[in-house]
Amino acid sequence: MDAVLPVYQDAVVANFYNGVVLAAVEAVVAGLEDGRQLCVLEVGAGTGGTAAMVLPALQNACAQYLFTDVSEVFLLQAQQRFAEYAGFMRYELLNIDADPRLQGFALAQQHLAIATNVLHATPYICNTLAHCRQLLSPGGLLVVNEVLETNAFAQITFGMTDGWWLFA
Ligand SMILES: C[S@@+](CC[C@H](N)C(=O)[O-])C[C@H]1O[C@@H](n2cnc3c(N)ncnc32)[C@H](O)[C@@H]1O
């Protein structure tokens, strides 16, 4: 018997909070003036659980969805998984812990940035948030879907991995 514990996608908690992200995205889309399209950047998009939730809602309202992660393997997987959105999807490496300008990102281009369970994985949250802000256009919105408390499940799973306790 396959015993797979869903964590990010198809899990009750992840689905609930990705649904909250979707509601925020839908509200932004609903507020768009006629003919305007969004530039969206997802930080630490990883296995694509959040992207899978929001992409259908963005399909006709998005000029570009930048799917980024610090790890290239996620970008390669996502290119296959989200092939149906190829018209507006772009895939780029981005370490949100480092200055986006030094990684080839133009400043102030994104109307919307989305970050699900990634910002905690950086040592200095002030730097991380400043980098998110650099990427946003004036009035741009950062949607943060982030764990706020630790618990036994997290500690004996992710807590054993390098990087989980990176904060300084
Ligand atoms: C806990 S996973 C969440 C993945 C995805 N957002 C989701 O909810 O399915 C954290 C992700 O952040 C990425 N990550 C870790 N440190 C990062 C950094 N400094 N900059 C950008 N992404 C990072 C990891 O590669 C991983 O894909």
UniProtKB/TrEMBL annotation:
<dbReference type="InterPro" id="IPR029063">
    <property type="entry name" value="SAM-dependent_MTases_sf"/>
</dbReference>
<dbReference type="InterPro" id="IPR013217">
    <property type="entry name" value="Methyltransf_12"/>
</dbReference>
<dbReference type="InterPro" id="IPR050444">
    <property type="entry name" value="Polyketide_Synthase"/>
</dbReference>
<protein>
    <recommendedName>
        <fullName>Methyltransferase type 12 domain-containing protein</fullName>
    </recommendedName>
</protein>
<feature type="domain" description="Methyltransferase type 12">
    <location>
        <begin position="41"/>
        <end position="142"/>
    </location>
</feature>
<dbReference type="GO" id="GO:0016740">
    <property type="term" value="F:transferase activity"/>
</dbReference>
<dbReference type="Pfam" id="PF08242">
    <property type="entry name" value="Methyltransf_12"/>
</dbReference>
<keyword id="KW-0808">Transferase</keyword>
